Amino acid sequence: MTSLRDDRGVSALHRIADRIGIHNLSLLVALVALLVIFGALRGDVFFSTRNLLNIGMGVAILGVLAISQTGVIVSGGLDISVGSIVGLTTVVTAMAIQATGLSGAGIVAALVVGGLAGLANGVLITYGRINAVIVTLGTMAIFRGIAFILSNGQSISIFQDSFRFIGTGRLLGLPIPIWILVAVAVGFYVFMHKSIVGRNYYAIGGNPIVARLSGLNIPRYRVGIYIVSGVMAGVAGVLLAARTGSGQPISGSDGLELEAITAAFLGGCAMQGGRGTVVGALLGVAIIGVLNNGMILTAVPTFYQMLAKGTLLILAVFLAEYRLNKA
Amino acid sequence: MTDPFVSTQSLTKHFGPVRALTDISFDVHPGEILALVGENGAGKSTLMRLLEGVFPPTRGTIRVEGREVSFSQPRDAHRAGIRVIHQEPEIVPDLTVAENVFAGDLPRKARFFLDWARLNHDTAALLKKFGIARELHPRQMCSGLGPAQRQMIEIMRAVQAGGRLVAFDEPTSSLTDEETRRLFAIIRDLRAEGVAIIYISHRLAEITALADRVVVLRDGALVDDLPAQGVTEERITRLMVGRALSDMFPDRRPGTGPVVLKVEGLTTDHVRDISLELRAGEVLGIGGLIGAGRSELAKGIFGFHRRSAGSVAIDGTALPPGDTAAAIAAGIGFAPEDRKEEALLLLQTILENAVLCVPDKVSNAGFYDRRKARDLISRISDKMRLKASSLDAPVTSLSGGNQQKVVLTRWLACDLKVLILDEPTRGIDVGARSEIYDLIRKLTDHEGLGVIVISSEMPELLGLSDRILVMADGRLRAEFARADASEEAIMQAAIPHGTAAA
Q1: What CATH fold (topology level) applies to the domain A24-320?
Q2: Chain A: nearest CA to B411, how far in angstroms?
Q3: Using an 8 Å Cβ cutoff, are B445 and B252 in contact?
Q4: Which residues of B touch A207 (CB under 8 A)?
Q5: What is the arithmetic mean of pLDDT over B12-28?
Q6: Domain coordinates of chain A in residue numbers?
Q7: Region A155-170: what's the mean pLDDT?
Q8: ipTM of the prediction
């Protein structure tokens, strides 16, 4: 009887490893390694509740973007304009609140403008038949430009406390942005892994010819995922505006898209699409968050942090492609 | 006899669970034409790729002039004097004839500059030697050239680069009779110069006319190596197939049901003015050469290629153009020729691949229901005798035959009226092949489906079809009732007459 129980124990472990997946397991190992390194260097500060919450706040915005970026990459695309959409939507939110005095108006404005920006990306890519990298590189500049034009280059302050609560308030001891990240993650997980529409994105990215021969309306799916990406950038814009208490055309321009794309590839996305998971993206985000925070605590100069981030993106894609070729 | 130029010893190649080649040992001598024959999937292409260094053998050795070699890339094989003329010639369209002939080996001036004068002079000499100086010029761009001319350029490239073994893979599949005669003359000239030749073809008449020796492959093994003199086509066929053909295709009664599919004047970018009818319970075969537009006809009917004129109707109801979803909803299924590129999601599992066209049957309110999916698919795949460790295994873990069964399972999960199969047994071993033939039989006789089978394999086309249409240059050229169809008649209709249409 005891041996039977042992067997069960082993198979349960196996099952857990299977469920998590080799790839996510290796991300967990990397994350733990980073925690050990930074813990050893600055354990006093690093593991303090305040710092951990700081990391959480830092990754909330990035997490929302990395998750939707994962959806875009799974479909076979890429959206490098998300940082600019975040900047644009902080401005739009602030302007809407200034004009109406209503927090809700600001949120709706951000989501609508984000969705429209995504619609523009999607239509240009699918119906204009222009490469996704080129389109979103172009709109990255365009959306940023619109943000500067709308705001006249000025920061627009937000005084509504109810709105600022989204960025600074807490619920059950956790900051609101972390709750929003959790909600987005759960929603996307269910969508990408459990719904028929979500599964179809894996088919479209995996092989568009097969998808078309299976009766899927590819242009509609493609436009759809860019709209989702834009709306999620709007959510990130709301979080950022609420945290800083202002709409700033410059916000989101400090490599937010770089980090989101890095997290998605770290999380197991394949360059050509058809592969990637929400859980992987979250682990990728956690690694980037810990790395960012740890580098600040250990006083790595900003310029060198940029080197590290760029290297990480290239490394993530290299590893993803290497794994794919080996398989 | 001279020493062999190339010899192989127990050459074996496995791809995962698939044994593509087992223990192949043979020699090719200088000044000899060796014909390599076998059904599709017998291992001819794999053998060529091993000789050309595309991938290494799992076991066994290749010797060139007695020395053991190991190629890690085609460049190594080229250096050793081995060249393969592929079915689709590798020509850069925006370069001149001369540049293509000397690609990778362009003459230089002062180490840095291209020596145009010498390049064009040398090319002109080669063109003269091949007797085609009148139709090709060294400075001509390659973009407008036909298949025969492209092939000539590739042969000249092989010869100028010092090729001492030249292998031809189905070289006549898109040539006219006249072009074929000229090619044979060139091959014989090469033989006279002491070049070793490997010649792969399905056309057995060519083999008895041209070859000195015949090597027969079946299911990845070498079944015979015999002199070509006095060998009959029947004997080669028997060796290739390994059993009488009639065993694989039991008698059937022709379908006499109502018309399910009616195509009128269908025109796309690839096919012109196609009209045909398919009855319930009928197998309609479509023959023709590679590039005749057969797959494109299937894609036109299915709505993958948007039609510019004509109509497609199922049970009298017209389908909208360019709408694959509507075609599926109306009851058309299409299993394309290239399983890896057009039918399977290689990153996904068997189950995920099988449920692709029936989202409504495997979901509740838009959410995927695994239990429903498993129930539906395992019922069908059991009937198909799909051999897999689990439905959750990656689809790439399966052999070619079982991968094709996954594709067929996908379509049988739908409520079909018409199933279009494009080269349904390409790359599939004999066992799975006869299972697929049985399945087609069951679908027509018991479930009343109309089935269209596109095939380049004559025995398959003749054995399965109730009626055969032949295509050439994107048009229908001939129709044969089962009783009137023969390999010769089909080939006659399939070869484009006169110069190819522009």
Answers
A1: ABC transporter involved in vitamin B12 uptake, BtuC (1.10.3470)
A2: 9
A3: yes
A4: 341-342, 344-346
A5: 86
A6: 24-320
A7: 91
A8: 0.81
